[in-house]
């Protein structure tokens, strides 16, 4: 088992906010950071020791990253699978490339979840719109049709309430094959972030409750307002999936909670996740610190919650009013990601608030008027 020590260099593919927070955690321990990203002034690049400015699939740039890094990780999943696979042959990439191949494609991802023994909504896959027309009866209406590749934050999907709306899904096939899932009403969305080391041991952050607005994560509430049985089922399912995928590093498992308290797995993300940002202040180890330990071959720590917490995302329209609120909000931990332009609905940062009563925190967030 390879152990990477402070003073050595961690290479990160992707220069966004997840890479930035990984890098900051790593630098606390004394690691050096190299980043590959097309942007000159990426969030990760601002805190890195080595910047390689090139597209993610640039073979020469990947070779340069391999030369300067003792271990390589990634901060998002939409990277070139073939390039990453070649990189694993010349550099130490403990997470491997296979998990990227699986999570880039909803068809492969759903098959992996099912094969792990975790619950998913009934679904069919279709390579063409004609095949969808033939198979849609297997799931019925209402249903959700999603592109197998490339969708995020609600993009690349359409809800069909009845058969007369089926034509609305045809344009999705211009991008890729699709899956159609039976629409099952749910009470809430939760996630489990599981992290697994090179020795096979795993740890989970507390179960998180997630509230979305316009398909973008708005708030994460910890602990999730679910029963002990639901929380246990969620953690068990995450463990089954992590073991099946032979995970090293981090996996965020997003789930639906149904009226009876049972769960269905929605999707996977093979890296630190927006819903785990609260862990920087609220837990005995953050998702970023644990990720660094996992890929570097260090023993994992058991995350424990210091106090209940609410994390709320800062989109472009929220930045100015949050900055104005700093003098009157001593309990707010504010994180800005170093992005140059505060565009509407662009993730610019987050705020974490620790308190004994999350219901009071949620009320105070609403009363601030910033996120209306």
From TrEMBL:
<comment type="subunit">
    <text>Homodimer.</text>
</comment>
<dbReference type="GO" id="GO:0005524">
    <property type="term" value="F:ATP binding"/>
</dbReference>
<dbReference type="InterPro" id="IPR011761">
    <property type="entry name" value="ATP-grasp"/>
</dbReference>
<dbReference type="InterPro" id="IPR054350">
    <property type="entry name" value="PurT/PurK_preATP-grasp"/>
</dbReference>
<feature type="binding site">
    <location>
        <begin position="181"/>
        <end position="184"/>
    </location>
    <ligand>
        <name>ATP</name>
    </ligand>
</feature>
<dbReference type="InterPro" id="IPR013815">
    <property type="entry name" value="ATP_grasp_subdomain_1"/>
</dbReference>
<feature type="binding site">
    <location>
        <begin position="266"/>
        <end position="267"/>
    </location>
    <ligand>
        <name>ATP</name>
    </ligand>
</feature>
<dbReference type="Pfam" id="PF22660">
    <property type="entry name" value="RS_preATP-grasp-like"/>
</dbReference>
<protein>
    <recommendedName>
        <fullName>N5-carboxyaminoimidazole ribonucleotide synthase</fullName>
        <ecNumber>6.3.4.18</ecNumber>
    </recommendedName>
</protein>
<comment type="similarity">
    <text>Belongs to the PurK/PurT family.</text>
</comment>
<dbReference type="GO" id="GO:0034028">
    <property type="term" value="F:5-(carboxyamino)imidazole ribonucleotide synthase activity"/>
</dbReference>
<feature type="binding site">
    <location>
        <position position="106"/>
    </location>
    <ligand>
        <name>ATP</name>
    </ligand>
</feature>
<dbReference type="InterPro" id="IPR003135">
    <property type="entry name" value="ATP-grasp_carboxylate-amine"/>
</dbReference>
<dbReference type="InterPro" id="IPR016185">
    <property type="entry name" value="PreATP-grasp_dom_sf"/>
</dbReference>
<feature type="domain" description="ATP-grasp">
    <location>
        <begin position="110"/>
        <end position="296"/>
    </location>
</feature>
<dbReference type="GO" id="GO:0006189">
    <property type="term" value="P:'de novo' IMP biosynthetic process"/>
</dbReference>
<keyword id="KW-0658">Purine biosynthesis</keyword>
<dbReference type="InterPro" id="IPR040686">
    <property type="entry name" value="PurK_C"/>
</dbReference>
<comment type="pathway">
    <text>Purine metabolism; IMP biosynthesis via de novo pathway; 5-amino-1-(5-phospho-D-ribosyl)imidazole-4-carboxylate from 5-amino-1-(5-phospho-D-ribosyl)imidazole (N5-CAIR route): step 1/2.</text>
</comment>
<feature type="binding site">
    <location>
        <begin position="151"/>
        <end position="157"/>
    </location>
    <ligand>
        <name>ATP</name>
    </ligand>
</feature>
<dbReference type="GO" id="GO:0004638">
    <property type="term" value="F:phosphoribosylaminoimidazole carboxylase activity"/>
</dbReference>
<keyword id="KW-0547">Nucleotide-binding</keyword>
<comment type="function">
    <text>Catalyzes the ATP-dependent conversion of 5-aminoimidazole ribonucleotide (AIR) and HCO(3)- to N5-carboxyaminoimidazole ribonucleotide (N5-CAIR).</text>
</comment>
<feature type="binding site">
    <location>
        <position position="212"/>
    </location>
    <ligand>
        <name>ATP</name>
    </ligand>
</feature>
<keyword id="KW-0436">Ligase</keyword>
<comment type="function">
    <text>Catalyzes the ATP-dependent conversion of 5-aminoimidazole ribonucleotide (AIR) and HCO(3)(-) to N5-carboxyaminoimidazole ribonucleotide (N5-CAIR).</text>
</comment>
<dbReference type="InterPro" id="IPR005875">
    <property type="entry name" value="PurK"/>
</dbReference>
<dbReference type="GO" id="GO:0005829">
    <property type="term" value="C:cytosol"/>
</dbReference>
<keyword id="KW-0067">ATP-binding</keyword>
<dbReference type="GO" id="GO:0046872">
    <property type="term" value="F:metal ion binding"/>
</dbReference>
<dbReference type="Pfam" id="PF17769">
    <property type="entry name" value="PurK_C"/>
</dbReference>
<dbReference type="Pfam" id="PF02222">
    <property type="entry name" value="ATP-grasp"/>
</dbReference>
<feature type="binding site">
    <location>
        <position position="146"/>
    </location>
    <ligand>
        <name>ATP</name>
    </ligand>
</feature>
<feature type="binding site">
    <location>
        <position position="189"/>
    </location>
    <ligand>
        <name>ATP</name>
    </ligand>
</feature>
<dbReference type="InterPro" id="IPR011054">
    <property type="entry name" value="Rudment_hybrid_motif"/>
</dbReference>
